[in-house]
Design goal:
The protein has 181 residues and is mostly helical. It is 81% helix and 0% strand. It has seven helices and no strands.
Length: 181
Amino acid sequence: MEIQTPLDALGGWLVQTDIGLGLLLLVGLSMSLSHVFTLLANRLNRRQIIVHLILDGLMLSVAFLLSSTIDMVLLATSASVTIHPSDFINGVAVCLLPAVFYLLVAAPYVGETIGLGIWVLMHLNVITLLHARFALPYGEALLLATPGYVVAVLLVWLLFRQGWQAGYSTLASQLSDAHGS
């Protein structure tokens, strides 16, 4: 019976954050899809590509959930604002919606510019959310939103770096095997 109460609370929280968690998953999957061309170039089969995209999407979603949690904790401690976690996650997830278009980063020549624009827009959206919903001055909102943003950027960079290195090593080994034969 002791464990039933926390599980009921967790279940209620998950139901309340269904929109936010769903949007975080959508953002993660969209960012994962930006690497589909690399996976195809590495001659992975359909099943391997799907598994890779799903796992990357889940990892990216967790990275954004972690960064949102950091923002929420900083907001609660620094600004002395009480907020229900589901309300905050739902609000921040909407701020991350520009990342749904992260697939466009795979576009040749302009992909990096599009990616940079999406990251800046997401950060500005979170700052605006903190200003509009919690009446924080923009400077304080910037200070509260930046640590979570930096964590998200670092986690996504590490995940993408690992994926690119694995992809390039696979392609290099396939090319060396093809030239060696």
